[in-house]
Write a structure and sequence with these properties.
Elements (H helix, E strand, L loop, with lengths): L1 H23 L2 E9 L6 E6 L10 H11 L3 E4 L12 H10 L6 E3 L3 H5 L3 H10 L3 E2 L3 E7 L2 E7 L6 H8 L7 E5 L4 H6 L6 E4 L8 E2 L3 E2 L1 E2 L3 E2 L6 E5 L2 E5 L17 E9 L1
Parallel strand pairs: 1-16, 2-3, 3-4, 4-5, 7-8, 8-9, 9-15
Antiparallel strand pairs: 2-16, 6-7, 10-11, 12-13, 14-15
Protein name: Calcineurin-like phosphoesterase domain-containing protein
InterPro entries: Calcineurin-like_PHP (IPR004843), Metallo-depent_PP-like (IPR029052), Metallophosphoesterase_sf (IPR051158)
Keywords: Hydrolase, Metal-binding
Length: 265
């Protein structure tokens, strides 16, 4: 009986330690894409679903991003949690990121919308020099290449989607930022070369071979859970995020940021 109890307690301690590592120590997921539309390779860092995660070592995060030396940084929503009252953790992180590049772009997630002070947080992002895209687009130069960067809000319809891509030069490489992966897919006309999304957390709990057990907006065993997907001529990439919501639990799905390299085809 004592041996069985010892084994049970040991396994429980190992499981708790494993989950703590999964939710506290992030990794950098490397993604490589190709395009004929760019003149020189570009680097993108994607940070999604931070949820004001104070377990993340900010100094380590900034050093990792500095090492990547990105041309742009994209924040694909839920940087704060619906319950977050003190924004300083997230704002300080973003201010430090701006010392690496001033090309930082943000789109709303459902948690910014649900937070009673979400608009205040977004205004603070603007004050910190972040480009906030609300169903709109902008163009930027990266290494002599014109890049369209479009952004949609969390709740969109076809009119919002069309507005976000209105007037873009289709010859340029086009990136669409969306917190939800499945919403823009419903309306996509294939003008985007790359859609960057989050929201799913990779399911938080994953099983070998099967993948995510459940994801918001998609139910059980979702198709679009984490990683790369090809939709016609468009590439969809879903980052599983730096934080958690509801329960701070992850399994086979460590918190992460993404380093995305788009290389000249």
């Amino acid at each position: 009986m004592k041996i069985k109890l010892f084994i049970f307690i040991s396994l429980l301690v190992i499981l708790v330690a494993y989950i703590y590592i999964q939710i506290s120590f992030f990794k950098v997921n490397q993604v490589e894409l190709n395009s004929e539309k760019i003149k020189d390779d570009i680097k993108i860092v994607q940070i999604s679903d931070f949820h004001n995660n104070k377990r993340i070592n900010k100094g380590t995060l900034i050093k990792k991003v500095e090492g990547i030396n990105p041309d742009i940084i994209v924040l694909t929503g839920d940087i704060i949690d619906a319950k977050t009252k003190d924004f300083d953790c997230s704002i300080d992180m973003i201010k430090d990121l701006r010392s690496i590049t001033d090309k930082i772009y943000f789109v709303w997630g459902n948690h910014e919308i649900r937070n009673n002070r979400g608009r205040e947080f977004v205004e603070r992002l603007k004050g910190a020099g972040v480009f906030v895209l609300e169903n709109e687009n902008t163009m930027t130069y990266i290494k002599n290449t014109e890049i369209n960067i479009c952004g949609v809000n969390f709740y969109i319809d076809r009119a919002n989607y069309n507005k976000a891509l209105e007037g873009i030069d289709e010859k340029n490489y086009t990136i669409l930022l969306s917190h939800s992966p499945n919403r823009p897919i419903s309306y996509s006309a294939g003008l985007e070369d790359l859609i960057l999304a989050g929201h799913t957390h990779g399911g938080q709990l994953r099983l070998p071979i099967i993948g995510a057990i459940v994801a918001p907006g998609q139910g059980y065993f979702p198709k679009y859970d984490k990683g790369l997907f090809k939709i016609g001529n468009t590439t969809l990439y879903i980052d599983s995020g730096l934080g958690n919501s509801v329960f701070p639990i992850r399994f086979l799905n460590r918190v992460q940021i993404s380093s995305i390299s788009v290389k000249r085809a």
